[in-house]
Amino acid sequence: MLVNNNLHRPLEVVLEIPVRTYDIDFMGIVSNIVYIRWLEDLRLKFLDEHWQLNQQIEQGYAPVLAGTEIEYKRPIKIIDKVIGRLWLGNIGRLKWTVQAEILSNNKLAAVANQKGGFVSLQNNRLIPIPEELQKKYLQHQQGIQKN
Asked: Does residue 75 form part of some domain?
């Protein structure tokens, strides 16, 4: 799994992540399942900054997750300083992809990709990506091309 190594990271959010005692497994390292929670925290921050969940619900739709891939690079311990980064990797007509990295003491600890879409709250069917989010992504893409 490759994560975008250049600075082209549309709508990137950064989150300082505390490691809690309940995040640690019997080996003294962060349990694999904790990374899923951290990705959820990053997606919620993304929504807070770029596409607020309460507005989506008012408009009758919500995001759904279709898949997660994580590649663990190094273990994280309770004393480590952890930073998460997440950005919009791709957006299509019906589906989106976000990419993420987890850094521990400024070293890459994990990379992840998540895929999803938006569903109607009335019938739970996939709907096209909201036009406003597509525009925001395209504006970022055009800004990169101009530089």
From this structure: yes
Structurally, how many domains does the chain consist of? 1
E-state strands within the chain: 13-17, 61-72, 82-91, 95-104, 107-120, 126-127
Contact between 36 and 23 (Cβ < 8 Å): no
Asked if 71 contacts 112 with a C-beta cutoff of 8 angstroms, the reply is yes
In sequence order, which residues have a C-beta less than 8 Å from that of residue 38 and are 6 or more positions away? 17, 82, 84, 102
Q: What is the CATH number of the domain that holds 47?
A: 3.10.129.10
pTM reported for the whole predicted model: 0.88
Instruction: Let me know if residue 2 belongs to a domain.
Output: no
Residue 6 lies in a domain: no
Q: Which residues contact 25 (CB under 8 A, 6 or more apart)?
A: 31
Cβ-in-10-Å burial (0-12, 13-18, 19+) of 99 comes to buried
Q: What is the pLDDT of residues 72-104, one digit of tens each?
A: 999 999 999 999 999 999 999 999 999 999 999
